Structures are given as C-alpha cells and as structure tokens.
Amino acid sequence: MVDELAFSIGDLREGSPQAFKKLFFQYYPEFYAFAYSLLADKLSAANSATEAFFLLWKKRKYLESANDFKAFLYNTIRNSCLNYLRYKQTYPDTGAYLAQNKMDASFPEETLQELLAYAASER
Asked: Is 14 helix (H, G, I), strand (E, B) or coil?
C-alpha cells in the first residue's frame, strides 16, 4: 500500500487532479474522523478536513513522501481545529467552522464538485 501511496504522491506532485481525487477518496474518512475527534461537530470536521486537502493541493510540490502527505494533513487539521476551538471559547455563539481556503482555480470544476459531494455525504 505504501508503494501505491508513494506512486500517487508522485503523480500529485506533478499536478494530477486524478491522483488528488484518488487520495481524497481513500484518505478523507480517516482525516474527517480525526477532525471530528477534536471538534465533535460533523459540519466543522468536514470543513476542516476538506480545507486541509485543498491546502495540500496548493502545497503539493513540497511533498517528498507518503509520510509527508499524512503528516501535512494531520498537522493542518490539528492546527485549524485548535484555532477554531480557541476562537469558539472567545466567541461562544459562533456557528460551525467554515473553510477559509478555496481550491485552486486551475483545478477541474467537475472533479471539485465530485469531491465536495463526497465530503458532504461522509457527514
């Protein structure tokens, strides 16, 4: 599995939307569950995980290995969740965490809509 992940990471680094889509479908549930364990809010967890993947696309050229891929997502999600929880302490009437990063405009719109629909169905 690691060899397959390494191959997908290589394709992702080259800018393959298909590699990104494959990794998203394969790993989104794991990272959503991690965000949910920190936030205990389905919508906020989905937004945090989705935002982390979008940021991954923007930073894809810096990935060296499968370990970098997972570490990047775990760290990004953890930091965004902790920031949201701190904000929520200060402003308790705040609604769900809303994603701040948008997907790169060069990413295929059809694929983006498919990913967003998948993320919404996982909640």
From this structure: coil
SS3 17: helix
| Alpha-carbon gap, residue 53 to 83, rounded angstroms | 17
Tokens matching residue 94: 């705040």
Q: What is the Cα–Cα distance from 58 to 81, expressed in whole angstroms?
A: 20
Quote the tokens at residue 2: 């690691």
Number of domains the chain contains = 1
Range of the domain at 26: 2-122
Model pLDDT, residue 74: 97
Report pLDDT digits (tens) over 51-65: 999 999 999 999 988
CB 45 within 8 Å of CB 85? no
Instruction: Kindly report, residue by residue over 20-46, the tens digit of the pLDDT.
Output: 999 999 999 999 999 999 999 999 999
Nearest to 51 by CA among 29, 71, 32: 32
